[in-house]
Amino acid sequence: MHRSGLLRTPLALALALAALGQIAPAAARSPAPPATAAALPSKQYRIEDFIDTVGVAGASYSADESKLLFSSNKSGIWNVYSMPADGGEWTPVTRSTTDSTYAVAYFPDDDRVLFTRDQGGNELNHLYVIDRDGAERDLTPGDKLKASFAGFSHDGRHFYVSSNERDPKVFDLYRYSSADYRRELVYRNEGAYQLGPISNDERWLSLAKPTTTNDADLFVADLKSGQATKVSEHSGEAQFTGQDFSPDSQWLYYTANDQGEFAQVRRVQVGTWKHEPVQQADWDIVANYFSHNGKYRVVAINQDGSTAIQVYDHASGQPVALPKLPAGEIRNVSISRSEKRMAFYLNGDRQPNDLYALRFGEQPKQLTRSLNPAIAAADLVDSQVVRFKSFDGMSIPNILWKPHQASAQAKAPALVWVHGGPGGQTTRAHSAVIQFLANHGYVVLGINNRGSSGYGKTFFAADDGKHGREPLQDTISAKRYLQSLDYVDPERIGIIGGSYGGYMTVAALAFHPDEFKAGVDIFGVTNWLRTLESIPPYWESFRLALYKEIGDPATQRDFLIATSPLFHADKINKPLMVLQGANDPRVIKPESDEIVAAVRKNGVPVEYVVFDDEGHGFSKKKNQIEGYGKILNFLDTYLKGDGKARGAQP
Questions:
Q1: Are 507 and 572 in contact, with CB atoms under 8 Å apart?
Q2: Between the CA atoms of 440, 512, 608 and 590, what dihedral angle is there, to the nearest 10 degrees?
Q3: Pair 134, 629: CB distance under 8 Å
Q4: Of 1, 44, 133, 554, which alpha carbon lies 20 to 30 A from 322's?
Q5: CATH architecture of structural domain 381-640
Q6: pLDDT digits (tens, 9 = 90+) for 471-507
Q7: For 193-320, which CATH class?
Q8: Where are the domains of the chain?
Q9: Which residue, 488, 462, 490, 492, is CA-closest to 391?
């Protein structure tokens, strides 16, 4: 089946030292810019220049494969566009000026379009169609529901949608007629499973059941009988994830890490429940899916902070040669229904997402040029992978961005950048805000502290029940590592992060008040009790797993108070900046209101920026310009400067 947006919600969505070891940098992913380091950057760009880089995402071929459907923030807000599959002018499909709107797919037999949007970032997405007459229609109407596209049937006569309209805590599966949108309930999700892929014959549904953030069982449901069979017998904790059914619907391909540190691909035969190995690697295999008729199998590997894509001829098992391209990584491969064409993205440090397309056997064609032409790519910086030993000897992987202008003779201020999650990962990729900070002379160390994904299940589990303690100590070790670099000013090191990374930022200021000179909290948790008690109802499938990872508000109240920065805000004595979306359903606005008020009582400079039309993440260009611009001003004042050039803003 063609599928998109299936509910495979990891905990990472719940929130996106002493002895130093040997530094282990990886080779930069691209050649050095054609100029000496001393000559770069040739200029410092405004935040407007970085945000004027065009964002593009997604790719769906039209029925006749003459056009591609995709999403872009070209207008300042995400909307849906189409363009000729061989390149050409963009045609706007939606023209929203208020709510970010994202492409889902063309219909298999005509040019009708499916797309999705929420309301001001509240994450209550609905599924919409632009019908044959050009009118927009909500296929999932109702208040306070969340719906996601779950794929077209192989013959295109139906499509599937998950929705929590019956019960806010669980997602049921509905089958819609592609002709007239009549629908029927095909799976009533009484077990609060996470829904996975559907077989081409429309009989089998993959289901997941998390028990902890490190353990999830795999089930296969028979849509005729509704019976679900567990197919993931194992000892110890292990993650099983359904990936795709075989083209003949006889096998479910899945990933599992029960036989080692990293997830490998195996398959289970429906009915007999016999398992077979398929593929393993030295890192996590994070995706495995088939083209429409099964000619190709596509695999994605999380390889030390980078994405490695492999395409196989399924019948022979032989790899398909991918094109040689400029610096960057191939991502998000989409193969047309005829299996004659492929679209994909190229992404790198100095290469924001650009859409490419090819006919198999021919050279690819670049369809977009996303980097703002006002920016010289040579002025951007390449990241590298570095590792240090944390306080207890654990090796911590990181992504490091070094400004061109930083040297032993011109030491630069630095930031420890903490990702969301907790189980997220900082990877090698283009980041407008990190490149903006590097361009203005800030070293950025994207720490993958213990508990981050991508480095094996033992490392991933190493933060369980320890938040605010050992993982936080990793950030202190990261500071020590930065101080060991001869081009870093050891007295000017701050900390920044979003979501769980925002929690780590404020926790560092509260529990280690003398370590970092300033902190930037982007919609971070500061009161675990409130956050865990106010999680959206549709997180029910992994609520208990979240409690086991962070703490149960019913039985571990004292522990959660001890690890929540809000209750220790009187110890914060360094400047703090907080950014918040008013419609955030994960970290609600009162969370940020309270930490700002508490820290202001200390007489500490606090800057608070609230966006009334955003949620958990800032999707609109005007808000990114304001927010990221204010971050630089804050850092220039309190980290790079003496705190007197600019005062804190209300």
A1: no
A2: 140
A3: no
A4: 1
A5: 3-Layer(aba) Sandwich (3.40)
A6: 999 999 999 999 999 999 999 999 999 999 999 999 9
A7: mainly beta
A8: 193-320, 381-640
A9: 462
